[in-house]
Design brief:
The chain is an alpha+beta fold. 34% of the residues lie in helices and 25% in strands.
């Protein structure tokens, strides 16, 4: 639906908006709390509004589903699984952002015909733009991403794990008997996927991600050659707003070993 030229234009637009809306507010953002206890700032709202306006001006027939909109509207936008819709997280990592921690991103994906077709994740602090087009590849800025297939076993590698949302017994086992050498948790799901796609870690585990958290990053990972499923062995994207777990690895050997440790049996795609 979108071309490589469209993808480049989309990435440019997101970069410009993030640098004008997010960076000037960083380090002095005032946090508030939504009904579910999650953090929100004026930057989240401003960035989503700017994205909605800008994307509509370039692709007027495609509506936008953003994190900062009422759930009934989100459900309605997903009800026609053949229609195109932007899936947007205007500020992924709001808790980091509002605390002055320099790890956050903007995530924009295009969902069409039941599949994520386009993904862009932009890190304005490092000026790193991860992008992907289904069937065409993934890139970090202008460099193609291609994960190595000869990665060493996971016990010698870095794992990104979000312990907060895992079952207690699994979190305990990972803490006391980890299969990897080092563990990290950064606080931006979209960037987590992209850092895996760029080989900065080898395995990843998260217990509960929303659609706007993983939509773009999961396509970047897949197009770079990575593998993913849920803790139930299902594909991560399921066509709804239902939060999903994520079991991710950079290649098949690591994925097999990671799933074996976790007791996960991936289902055929």
């Amino acid at each position: 639906m979108l071309t490589l030229d469209d993808l480049a234009n989309l990435a440019k637009l997101i970069r410009l908006l993030a640098r004008s809306e997010l960076l000037p507010r960083f380090t002095h953002a005032t946090k508030q709390f939504k009904a579910d206890g999650s953090v929100i700032t004026a930057a989240d709202l401003a960035m989503q509004q700017q994205l909605q306006t800008t994307l509509h001006s370039h692709w007027p027939t495609i509506p936008l589903l953003g994190e900062e909109m009422p759930e009934p509207e989100q459900v309605q936008l997903l009800s026609n699984n053949k229609a195109a819709v932007w899936i947007v997280d205007p500020l992924d990592g709001t808790s980091n952002y509002s605390s002055g921690l320099p790890f956050f991103s903007v995530s924009v994906a295009l969902l069409y015909a039941g599949q994520i077709q386009v993904g862009v994740v932009y890190d304005p602090i490092r000026d790193e733009c991860f992008s992907a087009l289904r069937g065409q590849g993934a890139w970090l800025n202008n460099t193609a991403l291609s994960l190595r297939t000869d990665t060493q076993p996971t016990q010698l590698q870095v794992g990104i794990v979000d312990f907060k949302r895992l079952p207690a017994d699994l979190a305990t086992r990972l803490a006391t008997n980890p299969p990897y050498q080092s563990q990290r948790s950064f606080g931006s799901v979209a960037l987590d996927w992209c850092w895996l796609a760029s080989g900065r870690a080898q395995v990843y585990l998260h217990g509960k991600q929303n659609l706007w958290d993983y939509a773009a990053g999961s396509l970047v990972l897949a197009e770079a050659g990575g593998y993913a499923c849920t803790l139930q062995g299902e594909t991560v994207y399921c066509g709804s707003l239902q939060p999903r777990s994520a079991v991710v690895a950079v290649n098949q050997p690591c994925f097999d070993e990671w799933c074996q440790y976790l007791g996960v049996k991936p289902q055929p795609a």
